[in-house]
């Protein structure tokens, strides 16, 4: 379009395109902009620009003239001039790409070409400077390119632009682990924007240019959408983000429609507790929901829901958060714990510091439990291992740390995690349990590695200090500090207790730094927790004989039997949990 008549030809072609589109049932560009606008849920968008663009496209879809849709208080020429002299966000650049074909008469020749130049320059910079797995690259090099190609479809260059943009899109989905790491790191802040862009791009490419996504690509999009369903609180806010950061419901509506997966939307509705409870039985037989436990090793992010129908004991944890892993623990519509789970370790009186990233030891998920164990190297030869377990049907959670140090060393350990803003703590006068509550009791917290009663000696203590649940302990060479949290309110009025069990190996009672076991009781419901701290060998406790790193089971007092929930065998060697 470098001839003398380029502008006149452009006006003619855009007019034809606009007239042609009005005869179609649905223009893919305008349809996706209306269903899932780039401004949805984005804090970095120019609101006035987004509103004006929405009005412009809505008018075009209803066959009004562009001039009739232009808000009287919005000056497109001034906005175009400001665009050239600023650093626009991805959302603003996309918005301009969507509306530019409708603004030829409004902007005039010079400004229109100038805006197009800004958009193409931004796309080229993203194409050459950003890695394949970057969400900014797929937004600016794939979606923006497809939008411009469709808007200028009657021109020869649009074919090459569309092909290039589709290739970028395919490369992005092929990145798999690198892409998920980029999306989910930092609390998955980039996921909503990237998922929305990927869905818009897919539909525009499919309808506008006959590019049909392969099954593998649909699977990758489905995984992104499943993660997005997971990372939504009951009020629609995003996990690990401020409560005011909301997810647009249009995002999963669109994902459900384009990916033909009603389970995504249903999962979102159940997560936000807006779904009809009568659908529960139907869903379990007719509609496949996403997995209730998801973990991304490369991003260090895990979400463990008891189920999409049950809400007591949902944990989200970001192990790559700095300076300490961030955790959220919920019960129903109440946040129980929220914030950085910090730890302090001293070996023989000397402070230790973390000196590496958290690495997976074991991830296991089945119908009974979600379980993850991570470890981190510290100075002075110390290893810190951290366990998170959700017993899915029981509404109970185990949070535990294990400190492994060199021989003949004395360990002092303390960890703390903030209570949620609405939570308060009430410590029992006689036992070491703590009740977390707002207007009602919400959680019973039991330090099952310590003795139950406050009288007498104990290797540590649990207390709430300045709004943080704090647990400490002392030991030699190896130390296990477990905390049991019961979130099922129906059990709160029952008699409760916990006991440290005798553990033996070859008829010799094991020391506390070799293996430990505890029994937790709420009325008739009881559980056994076992942890081996030494070399792999067989131990006996409560009539159970096994060789494993970790074990949890339900105890039946009527006959003394144990129902196995999870057994982790040689986790540090195999990185595989077996139930």
Automatic annotation (TrEMBL):
Superkingdom field: Bacteria
Q: Which Gene3D superfamilies match?
A: 2.70.98.70
- The name of this protein is Heparinase II/III-like protein
State the species of origin: Rosistilla ulvae
Highest lineage ranks of the organism?
Answer: Bacteria, Pseudomonadati, Planctomycetota, Planctomycetia, Pirellulales
């Amino acid at each position: 379009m470098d001839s003398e008549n380029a502008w006149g030809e452009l006006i003619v072609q855009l007019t034809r395109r606009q007239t042609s589109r009005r005869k179609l049932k649905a223009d893919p560009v305008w349809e996706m902009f209306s269903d899932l606008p780039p401004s949805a849920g984005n804090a970095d968008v120019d609101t006035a620009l987004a509103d004006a663009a929405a009005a412009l496209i809505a008018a075009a879809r209803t066959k009004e003239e562009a001039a009739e849709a232009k808000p009287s208080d919005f000056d497109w020429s001034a906005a175009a001039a400001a665009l050239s002299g600023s650093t626009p966000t991805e959302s603003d650049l996309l918005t301009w790409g969507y509306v530019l074909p409708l603004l030829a008469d409004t902007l005039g020749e010079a400004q229109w070409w100038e805006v197009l130049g800004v958009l193409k320059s931004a796309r080229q910079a993203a194409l050459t400077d950003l890695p394949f797995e970057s969400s900014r690259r797929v937004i600016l090099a794939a979606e923006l390119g497809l939008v411009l190609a469709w808007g200028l479809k009657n021109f020869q260059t649009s074919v090459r632009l569309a092909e290039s943009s589709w290739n970028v899109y395919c490369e992005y989905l092929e990145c798999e682990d690198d892409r998920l790491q980029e999306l989910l790191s930092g609390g998955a802040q980039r996921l909503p924007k990237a998922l929305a862009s990927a869905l818009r791009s897919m539909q525009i490419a499919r309808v506008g240019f006959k590019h049909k996504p392969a099954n593998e690509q649909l699977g990758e999009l489905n995984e992104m959408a499943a993660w997005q369903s997971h990372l939504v609180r009951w009020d629609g806010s995003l996990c690990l983000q401020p409560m005011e950061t909301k997810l647009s419901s249009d995002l999963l509506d669109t994902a459900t429609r384009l990916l033909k997966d009603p389970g995504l939307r249903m999962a979102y509705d159940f997560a936000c507790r807006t779904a009809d409870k009568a659908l529960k039985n139907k869903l379990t037989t007719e509609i496949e929901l996403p997995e209730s436990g998801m973990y991304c090793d490369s991003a260090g992010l895990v979400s463990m829901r008891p189920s999409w129908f049950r809400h007591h004991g949902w944990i989200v944890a970001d192990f790559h958060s700095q300076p300490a892993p961030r955790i959220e623990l919920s019960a129903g519509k109440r946040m129980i714990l929220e914030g950085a789970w910090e730890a302090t370790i001293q070996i023989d009186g000397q402070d230790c510091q973390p000196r590496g990233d958290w690495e997976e030891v074991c991830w296991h998920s089945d119908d009974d439990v979600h379980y993850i164990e991570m470890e981190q190297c510290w100075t002075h030869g110390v290893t810190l291992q951290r366990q998170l377990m959700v017993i899915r049907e029981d509404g109970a959670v185990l949070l535990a740390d294990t400190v492994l140090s060199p021989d003949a060393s004395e360990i002092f350990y303390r960890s703390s995690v903030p209570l949620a803003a609405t939570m308060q703590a009430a410590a029992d006068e006689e036992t070491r349990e703590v009740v977390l509550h707002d207007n009602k009791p919400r959680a019973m917290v039991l330090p099952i590695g310590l003795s139950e009663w406050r009288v007498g000696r104990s290797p540590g203590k649990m207390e709430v200090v300045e709004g943080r649940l704090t647990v400490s302990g002392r030991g030699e060479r190896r130390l296990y500090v477990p905390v049991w949290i019961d979130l099922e309110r129906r059990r709160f009025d029952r008699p409760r207790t916990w006991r440290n069990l005798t553990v033996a190996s070859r008829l010799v009672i094991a020391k506390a730094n070799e293996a430990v076991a505890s029994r937790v009781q709420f009325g008739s419901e009881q559980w056994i927790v076992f942890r081996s701290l030494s070399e792999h060998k067989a131990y006996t406790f409560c009539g159970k004989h096994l060789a494993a790193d970790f074990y949890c089971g339900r105890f039946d007092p009527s006959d003394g039997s144990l129902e196995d929930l999870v057994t982790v065998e040689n986790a540090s060697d195999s990185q595989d949990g077996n139930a």
